[in-house]
What does this fold into?
Amino acid sequence: MPAEQAKLIHVALKAERLFNIGPFEVTNSMIGALIASVILLGAAWYFSRSSAIVPNRLQSLIELPIELLTGIVASSTSRWRGYVSLVVGLFLMILVANWLGLLPGVGTIGLKGQAGEIVPFVRPAAADLNFTLGLAIISFVVFVWWAIRLHGPIGYLKELAGEPKVLAPLMFPIHLISELSRLVSLSMRLFGNVFAGEVLLATMLALTTAVAFTLPLALFVPGVFLGLELLFGAVQALVFALLTMAYITLAIAEHQEGHAADADHGENVATDPSHSTPAPA
Amino acid sequence: MFEAFGVDLAKLAFQIINFLLLLYLLNRFLLKRVLAFLDERQARIAKGLEDAESAARDRELARAEREAALDEARKEAAAMIARATKMAEESRAETVAAAKAEAEKVTARARAEIVAEKEKAIAELRTQVADLALDAAARLVRSEMNAKTQRRLVEEFLAEVPGTKPSGKGRN
It folds into this structure.
């Protein structure tokens, strides 16, 4: 009995290998990421094939999250068109990948592993740190790139050093760690939430199947948690996308503040309009 | 630490490349179009609102013009009616006055004729009565009275008859 239970509750911390293509190991979370990508590309294909200015229902459904996110991003900075695609893309990818994990069969149908546990064919992509870290790295690179693009490399380093130059040796490492911690927090938050969700669902499933004959009501419990996971999946996608937007916005806003500070220190710069108005993106 | 989570460079690279590729295709085939649609819809809605506003303005203008024309017409009609009424009033007064004058004239003429006829009748009556009385009296008291006494008696009698005046004829 305990061995049986252990098999039911089995959720591996790392994505599991399904097969190899040459030296390259293909894991079930890659399959999850690929399926999510295919779903999104299918939506894009449908949209590019039959979209109109007056949308039908399916088109509205596709436009809805994009419009929502665009509305939020558009209110961040005047350069929003430069990074709206990334934010919306992150949101859609994470949302679809998360919800994919809630479909029946995902995480439960698979190969039999060496220890007798099930190795599912598909694992929600965000339950693999490779996926979340990959997205976080992209996000990190983009917001650092925005900062460097608007400040210049020296300006970015100055920003990291902080304002009182005397404190720079102290502040520089702190700022550096703060920047890098964004990478860790972004990836770990998403991974932790989705992975915990998987564990939670597996646990609830194991518990309720164990007592189903004595307590029929327990059959509804996984349903409740599935509903919660649906919400968490959307929330985590939104959090990842909006944090990325916030970091980019900060990088841009700091740049604009930096310019304002320059204008304060310089002579006759305040009257020069090119310094106060950002160039169109 | 990364080993425990199953992170290795190849898998990380796969996920990054997969997402970047997806992002490129999504951006190209979905996001740009959606943004274009959103922009176009916004522009159309703005234009629609503007058109509606200008149409409302035009309508308001037309309404004001119509109202003004109607007012003018109404005022003119009122003036015409007032003029006509006044004219009718005047002509009626004239007619009435003329009729009244005519009636008065007729009445006056009739009255004058009546008075003349009456006078004539009285005078005639008086002569006849006097003659008749004379005749009767003569027949009654022929022998006892001379002509002078007779005459006086008749005169006295006539004076007592109401509505007559002595003609004075033969009083002396």
